[in-house]
Amino acid sequence: MRVKLSFQIKLFLCLVAFSCLLLTLIGAYTYHQLDAQLHRDLGARAQVQAREIALIPSLVSAVEKNDPGQIAALMKKIRASSDASYIVIGDNRARHLYHSEYANRFGTPMVGGDNKEVLEGKSIISIRKGGIGISLRSKAPILDENNHVIGIVSVGYLKSHIDNLNARTLTQIVGSIVLLLIALFIFSWLLSKNLKRQMFWLEPKEIALLVRQQKALLEAIYEGVIAVDPQLRIITINHAARELLDLRQPASTLMGREIGEVIQSQPDFFGASQLRHDTHDEVCRFNHVRVIASRVRIMQEDVLQGWVISFRDKNDINTLSSQLSQVKRYADNLRIMRHEQLNWTATLAGLLHMQRYDEAIRYVEAQSEGAQEILDFISQRFSSAALCGLLLGKYSSAKEKGVELRFDPACQLRQIPAALNETELMSIIGNLLDNAVEATLHCDAPHEAVELYISDSSDELVIEVADRGTGIAAEVRDTLFEQGVTTKDDKGDHGIGLHLVASHVAQAHGSIEVSDNDPHGAIFSLFIPYEFRAASNNAEV
């Protein structure tokens, strides 16, 4: 079974293995350099001693006389003060006159094969196997007054002596390496543990997965999200943020830039005084776009690591509010219809309790005749059940307010354009009818009817709503479909309906015409094609 090691253990083992290899190489290199330096130093020391001994006048005289006793007496003092392994004096025929270690070598040949150059008057350093073993030695010629070679001085250090010196050096190196390894073991373990703690005890694969998940989540969020560090430099920014703020640069080019260079905010959303506390759903302006923004501090162990800023377009909130208001109006229409039905039922029940059956029958026939007629007309002319329900609700709502909703006899709708869904169609018709009824109610009673025409008889859907209301003021005619623009006195909840209508029509590649309705009022005419063509991209709204 394969054992799976954690990141901390893997990192520790890698650091230890690398440290061992590195220290081993460093130790071997250091040992090699020290060994070479030791050989150079001992060779130079042997050469200096050999040359100095060869220049001693009494030694030169003793060699000329071939007096081994005098040579031995002289060299005894010198040998006592020298650290060399041996000192040898030879004649001009390379025969021993003196050996510091073996006195019985007198007259025997000097071995090693390196005497020729010395007898020619040169000083040498060599490694040879002599009479007592392999050694590093230096030989110098002994010259008489006429500069003739009369003898040889050999000063040497045995290899065993050099090995002992190297062994002490190697022991020191190994000891230092062991101490360094112990220190590196401790350091590696603490480093790997600290890194793992900073990684929240996660494995690299888990961190990589979290990074990919974070990136996917940021891109999936509908709201704009920007994270900045304590110096207000951008750490991350998602696609929604760049799209909302119309930032054309790739996300990679925005990383590291100060937030103030990318976003101009009003009021100062990134000021030092503002950053001291979190904020939620604050209305402000980012790069001339009105947004609802939130700012939350990133804290780690009570240390500020930065901020996360999320924001969304304020117009989206307004649009959602309008759609919710539309749903509320649908509910109000159902409430009105229920209220009328309860009144009708109560009246009928009263007549039946009084046993006035003939009057009850006439009342049912009277009430049913008009309701059944409009119900039959709507259900036969429009294939969408939701649209039928909307129109019945708007009819009853307008009737309760004292306004008649009149349908053109040529109305019909069998198919909704592909670029428009059922909800958007209901929003268009519902908003136009609401505006027409409200405009009519602003005129004195009795109120004239609101007329509705819906037809799909041609290659486009035609919707026309005409009222005899107050009409459209000249100062708002050019901006009528902009968000927030309204002709009503109470502007708190208005200014969105026509903006939604224009948005849905533009999305369906349609057009809107607004004209006056003589003698007063307005006519809204909508044209939505069933098949969109490239040439129709220039449709006006």
TrEMBL record:
Localization in the cell: Cell membrane
Catalysis performed (reactions): ATP + protein L-histidine = ADP + protein N-phospho-L-histidine
Transmembrane segments: 173-191
UniProt cross-references to SMART domains, sorted A to Z: HATPase_c, PAS
Keyword Kinase included in the entry's annotation: yes
EC number: 2.7.13.3
Keywords annotated in UniProt: ATP-binding, Cell membrane, Kinase, Membrane, Nucleotide-binding, Phosphoprotein, Transferase, Transmembrane, Transmembrane helix, Two-component regulatory system
Enzyme class, UniProt record, top EC level: transferase
Major subcellular site: membrane
Superkingdom of source: Bacteria
Membrane-protein topology: Multi-pass membrane protein
GO MF term set: ATP binding; phosphorelay sensor kinase activity
PROSITE patterns tied to this protein: HIS_KIN (PS50109)
A cellular-component GO term for this protein: plasma membrane
Protein name: histidine kinase
Organism lineage string: Bacteria, Pseudomonadati, Pseudomonadota, Gammaproteobacteria, Enterobacterales
